[in-house]
Amino acid sequence: MERQLSIDTLRKIATASAALVKGNSVQPIYDHVLIEDQRVVLGNATTQLEWFLDEEDRSFGFAPEAYPARDLERIAKSLPDAAQVQFGEQGQIRCGQSRFRLPVYDGAQYPVREEPLPSAWIRVQTQDLERIFPSLRRCAAKNDARTYLNGIHWQIRRVGQQEASLLVLEATDGHRAARFSLEYTPPLDSAHSPSGASADTEPSVPTLDAILPVEGLSAWMKLLSSRKIAEFSIAQIRSGVLFQGGGLRLWLTSLDGHYPSLDTILAQLEKRKDVLSLSIADFQRALTLATIGVGESQAVTLSTAPEHLLSVAAKGEERQAEDQIPAQWSGSLPLRYSFNIQYLMDVVDSVKETTKGSEDTEDPHMALRFDVSEKDPTSTFAEVPGGVLVVMPIRE
Predict the structure, then answer these.
(1) Residue 201 and residue 119: Cα distance in Å, rounded?
(2) Nearest to 50 by CA among 187, 152, 193
(3) Cα 213 from Cα 252, distance rounded (Å)
(4) Which residue in 153, 188, 200, 384 has a CA-CA distance of 20 to 30 Å to 180?
(5) Which residue intervals define the domain DNA polymerase III beta sliding clamp C-terminal in the entry (predicted)?
(6) How many CB atoms lie within 10 A of CB 280?
(7) Over the stretch 78-87, which tens digit does the pLDDT of each residue have?
């Protein structure tokens, strides 16, 4: 028996496969894509995507098989637009004059995630997460032995007398941090699954507290963008968090460990009374020029200069660079702080991304908050819509 998929559907499968299937898995079956009558399943032991096919791509009675992911991706790239792809038994695929036979697994061998669907969900606007996700991703650690720092912390927190709650997302690698709060809405009912299943009880008050892997979240963001999904739902499950929207369902296993509280360091924001205000474009240009002069320490020094100027300077053993740009400094003492230049450039990028469209001026500004009265350099803050960024200086 054969079943048919459009080339457009196969290319969408290939896009998801490229984002989620790593290749060279310890369990080789995870290097494959399971195609069933009404859904496609792919991923790995900790991140798994279920894609419920549109009605025109569904079939009945087709024996499910798991196809090599990279081969499907190459086929999808090579076939012409408007092609119809026929899937036969034992890994046979044909399209026009093209014929393929791939080594496949029986679909029953593919380890599909099985866990009861939750009844309490929240809904989030994709554009809200798109605005802040790059900032969170930059602040998360990479390959840290403290595995919980390699993820992004998601938590629903109650705020105020009326017990209103917000979705709080935060990330830190110990040298910088980001925290954002998003409003969310509960679903109208208990989250109809794309497959048609729904809970038969009313939604309970949702809870969420999980550390989620950046790689899996990045894949979800790519899928939301490629499918133009404007809204999605989130729910806590026993092993982690479940995302769904637009016919997609993503299972993400939480990272082990207890996420460190950022409350103490973020509470210091009120003490940062010394404010440096400057043009984002000027600052970005000065930092780019400073990269010419950085040495092994990757340090760039910010210091106040006469005539309302800010010196942005970097000095290595054999090279140096300095630029002076207009800036407003509210501190009573001079400023002289050094930072990892990449961390500071990331802060500027984050400010640009999170404030885009919120300022009417053609030359948007940003503000960094310091406390230069402290003997040693202290954490520096940048407030952005719905959140705050923190970067630690280098102690000279």
Answers:
(1) 7
(2) 193
(3) 8
(4) 188
(5) 272-353
(6) 17
(7) 999 988 999 9
Please provide residue 351's backbone torsions phi and psi, each rounded to the nearest 5 degrees: -60, -45
Beta-bridge partners for 49: 42, 250
At 213, the amino acid letter reads P
Reported for 88-93, long-range contacts at CB under 8 A and 24+ positions apart, including other chains, are 88/1, 88/2, 89/1, 89/2, 89/63, 90/65, 91/65, 91/67, 93/67
Report whether 20 contacts 47 (CB < 8 A): yes
- What mean pLDDT value characterizes the chain? 91
pLDDT of residue 191: 43
Phi, psi of 264 (to 5 degrees): -65, -50
Q: Mean of the pLDDT values across residues 156-179?
A: 86
Distance CA 392, CA 357 (A): 28
Q: Which residue has the tokens 């989030």?
A: 124
Tokens for 41, please give them: 């399943």
At residue 216, the pLDDT reads 96
8 A C-beta contact, residue 269 and residue 355: no
Question: What does the chain come to in residues?
Answer: 396
SS3 content of the chain, % helix, strand, coil (to 5): 25, 35, 40
Look up residue 53 and give its two tokens.
């096919």
Q: Going from the N-terminus, what domains does the chain have, and what CATH number goes with each?
A: 3-109 (3.10.150.10), 122-253 (3.10.150.10), 263-391 (3.10.150.10)
Angle at 371 between CA 370 and CA 374, to 5 degrees: 140
Q: Which two tokens stand for residue 190?
A: 């208990």
Residue range 272-299, pLDDT digits in tens: 999 999 999 999 999 999 999 988 779 9
